[in-house]
Amino acid sequence: MEINLLQPREDFVIETFDEFEKRYLGFGKEIYSKIKENLPEIFNNLVFYKRVNFQLEDSYAEFKSDQFPFGIQLDPLCEVIVLWSDCKHIEIGYWAKNEYEDAINYIKSELLK
Fold it and tell me: How would you class 26 by CB atoms within 10 Å of its CB: exposed for 0-12, middle for 13-18, buried for 19 or more?
């Protein structure tokens, strides 16, 4: 069963990781590199997106999985990393002691179950 976490689809276009790295300069940029380093099987199944109608500065990614799909949003204006599935949601921001470690731990403990 595939859950489309980004709705409606016509609001998003796929971008490569390289395109993301060139385009996105905001808060949380390192999260994808940290996922690649700590959870390579997750990174290899991420699809990256950007919005085309509003929140153009944000970054989105979807982990494609039959069992545990989840989404990632980076919002540079609010300075948050948003992680969500069909039933769980967290926002991790500048207030965290280590936002990347918190995000990786949340993915492992909450989103991959």
Answer: middle
